[in-house]
Design a protein that fits this description.
The complex is a heterodimer of chains A (309) and B (384). Chain A is mainly α. Chain A is 73% helix and 4% strand. Chain A has a single domain (2-295), classed as ABC transporter involved in vitamin B12 uptake, BtuC. In chain A, helix 1 packs across helix 9 (227-242), helix 2 (39-59) packs across helix 9 and helix 6 crosses helix 8. Chain B is an all-alpha fold and 384 residues long. In chain B, the strands form 2 sheets. In chain B, strands 1-2 form a two-stranded antiparallel sheet. In chain B, helix 1 packs antiparallel against helix 2, helix 2 (37-63) packs across helix 10 (274-287) and helix 10 packs across helix 11 (292-321). The chains are: A mainly alpha (309), B mainly alpha (384). The interface between A and B is large, with 51 and 54 residues. Chain B: InterPro entries: ABC_transp_permease, LivM-like. Chain B: Residues 361-384 are annotated as: Disordered. Chain B: Its main location: membrane.
Chain lengths: 309, 384
């Protein structure tokens, strides 16, 4: 029982991070039908910038409590990521709006390679440890351990998701975003500046991504120039699982994927008598994805959309 | 008109003859021009393998319009099949008739087994479209890789992350490709022999691709790519034709995988990561989807550019700064990524797009636009 609860908690933590990143994928997809392959790299850069800032502050002898240091780091990383997201869209995607569908996919891959290699040039090839500045108090709930950090991650992720929902459903900007995603041409006729909306989508998605990156780094105690690739892949899988282009779907898919992965890696070995170990957990995620898509070809919450060639 | 056609034909024949001569002497020319000619020849051998892969993926993505992000899995299947049947690793348990099969049998086996994997991937994904298909194929590629990485327990089939060593080179007509062969006063080393072998298969695959393009099946693929429902209405069995695209593309991958394994003498899961699938896709799209010369060009550029940069960047850095300022490995990949972005921005349909695609992208000529307008007005008038 307590193992189950423990894996569930771990899954929820990882899942809410996936969900935050998946939101970035799904928002961009909903508006431009584009897989933004570079989003994982933004997540990585968010984590790297934060770690560098905290290390600089600590090195300069600034006496602040851990969470405050983290906040300062985040305040630096979020604008950097926002700026990157904005420029990527302007440079690599906007000129290709009317091009064949796969063209922006290739530039996205190009951007991803450039950011990854640039990060390697700046921060080197090694793992960067996350500074030990956060209190590591452990609470025991029903036989399972949960740290302050994990509670904070889940709470912040929920808060951010709630904020995003509110923005999309209630504000003028959100209404313009929904209109653009339904039909950019008609949205334009209604006085929506589509270019601004697309830029805003990238900026908001990148900010969420940067925060998710810091959560990943804090949760695993390390960051690496290649980390964006795998985490981006997982988050994209989550977005597809929930139905890409659907905000609620991204959240559901992310949390589901995190929990499935965590429970899968915990129980796979026991269930199969040790034949399949926890190193098959990535397969677990993909197999679930394939099964879901066989029965629901547009994801869990996705609507049936017409194919765009 | 006829004379013009013959003129064109003659030109093409001459061009092909020149190309054949160039390709035949290329290994010796490389050896003559460069100090490290053999490492360049190795790069060329790999470029040829990538051409085969890109042409295989071109069938799935370029002809049939099915976005496949896990294509490298079929390359892996071919490579591992060759490795298992032709290395000491599993000799003890393999039945005698299966170990070291004759070369042609081996190649056919690789094509067939990879093709079956293609159908295996294709059948659950028939209903999926666009990006949903992309993510499932990506998942499939990862599943194959993870299995290869972990199938050393409980029964050791793939030898896990260490990979399979000591793969025997191919033997054709009693000649062992692992040993130098003397012929016409020239010494053909392993790398030369494999160059000609891979080139032969490359030509075969180009031939098959060309013949497929305007065949009944090829046109059916294009019809599905443009509009699946309309294709279905025209009497195309979309299910079978799509599965055929997956199987055909996969079998190309399987063949080149088998050649890769025997050339390299070693396979490990590291050669079949997602990035490789993405690179092959880049070759197809950068070159010009659906156009065979374009895809070949894309494959050559994407596989040779990093090698070229390797030889340029470090000396240049030394000349300018006098010391190693940045890691050349990172810098070359960075430049490579930038080049990809720039090429796509300048030529969104690829470097050498197919005629059909070019026609789609170009704005209509004035005459056609006028004609359409007239016929629309006619239709309206008739309606009244």
């Amino acid at each position: 029982m307590d193992i189950f609860l423990q894996q569930l908690i771990n899954g929820l933590v990882v899942g809410s991070i996936y969900a935050l990143i998946a939101l970035g994928y799904t928002m961009v997809y909903g508006i431009m039908q584009l897989i933004n392959f570079a989003h994982g790299e933004i997540v990585m850069i968010g984590a790297m910038v934060t770690i560098t800032c905290i290390n600089l502050l600590v090195g300069a002898g600034v006496q602040l409590p851990g969470p405050a240091l983290l906040l300062v780091g985040l305040m630096m990383a979020i604008p950097v990521s926002m700026f990157l997201g904005y420029s990527i869209e302007k440079i690599a995607y906007q000129p290709l709006r009317k091009a064949p569908r796969l063209a922006p996919l290739i530039t996205a891959i190009g951007v991803s390679i450039v950011l990854q290699q640039a990060a390697m040039l700046i921060w080197g090839r090694n793992y960067r440890p996350f500074p030990q500045i956060l209190p590591s108090e452990v609470h025991i709930i029903g036989g399972a351990a949960i740290t302050d950090l994990q509670i904070a991650i889940i709470a912040l992720a929920l808060l951010l998701m709630g904020g995003l929902f509110f923005m999309i459903e209630k504000t003028k900007l959100g209404r313009a975003m929904r209109a653009t995603s339904q039909n950019p041409e008609v949205a334009k006729l209604m006085g929506v500046n589509v270019n601004t909306i697309v830029s805003m989508t990238f900026v908001i998605g990148s900010a969420l991504g940067a925060m998710a990156g810091v959560m990943v780094a804090a949760n695993y105690d390390q960051a690496h120039a290649y980390m964006g690739f795998m985490i981006g892949l997982k988050a994209f899988t989550a977005a597809v699982l929930g139905g890409i282009g659907n905000i609620g779907g991204a959240v559901l898919g992310g949390i589901l994927l995190g929990v499935i992965e965590s429970l899968g890696s915990g129980y796979l070995g026991d269930l199969t008598g040790g034949v399949l170990g926890s190193h098959y957990k990535d397969i677990f995620a993909f197999v679930v994805l394939i099964i879901v898509l066989v029965f629901r070809p547009s994801g869990l919450l996705g609507e049936r959309v017409a194919e765009r060639a | 008109m006829n004379a013009l056609l013959m003129e064109n034909n003659r030109k093409n024949t001459i061009l092909l003859a020149v190309l054949a001569v160039v390709l035949a002497v290329l290994p010796w020319a490389l050896g003559g021009f460069f100090e490290n000619g053999n490492s360049w020849l190795r790069a060329v051998d790999f470029a040829l393998l990538y051409i085969m892969l890109a042409l295989g993926l071109n069938i799935v993505v370029g002809y049939a319009g099915l976005l496949d992000l896990g294509y490298i899995a079929f390359y892996a299947v071919g490579a591992y099949l060759f490795a298992i049947l032709n290395s000491p690793h599993l000799q003890a348990v393999l039945p005698a008739w299966l170990s070291h099969p004759p070369f042609l049998v081996m190649m056919i086996l690789a094509a067939v087994v990879a093709g079956i994997f293609g159908v295996l991937l294709g059948s659950p994904t028939l209903k999926l479209r666009g990006d949903y298909l992309a993510i499932v194929t990506l998942g499939f590629g990862e599943i194959v890789r993870i299995f290869m990485n972990n199938l050393d327990r409980p029964v050791n089939i793939t030898n896990g992350p260490q990979g399979i060593n000591n793969i025997d080179p191919v033997q054709i007509g009693g000649y062992d490709f692992g040993r130098p062969i003397e012929f016409l006063g020239l010494t053909f080393e392993k790398i030369h022999l494999y160059y000609y072998l891979i080139l032969a298969f490359c030509v075969l695959i180009i031939f098959v691709s060309v013949r497929l393009q305007n065949s009944r099946i090829g046109r059916a693929w294009v019809a599905i790519r443009e509009d699946e429902i309309a294709a279905n209405a025209m009497g195309i069995n979309t299910r079978n034709v799509k599965l055929l695209a997956f199987a055909m593309g996969a079998s190309f991958g399987g063949v080149s995988g088998a050649l890769f394994a025997s050339f390299q003498g070693f396979v490990s899961p590291e050669s079949f990561v997602l990035m490789e699938s993405i690179m092959v896709l880049c070759m197809v799209v950068l070159g010009g989807m659906g156009n065979i010369p374009g895809v070949i060009l894309g494959a050559i550029i994407v596989s040779i550019t990093p090698e070229l940069l390797r030889d340029i960047i470090n000396p240049l850095q030394m000349a300018i700064a006098g010391k190693r300022v940045v890691d050349p490995e990172n810098l070359r990949m960075l430049i490579f990524g930038l080049a990809m972005i720039v090429i796509m921005l300048v030529r969104p349909a690829g470097l050498w797009p197919s005629k059909r695609r070019r026609a789609e992208l170009k704005p209509k000529t004035k005459d056609i636009a006028l004609q359409e307008k007239d016929s629309l007005q006619d239709a309206e008038r008739n309606h009244d």
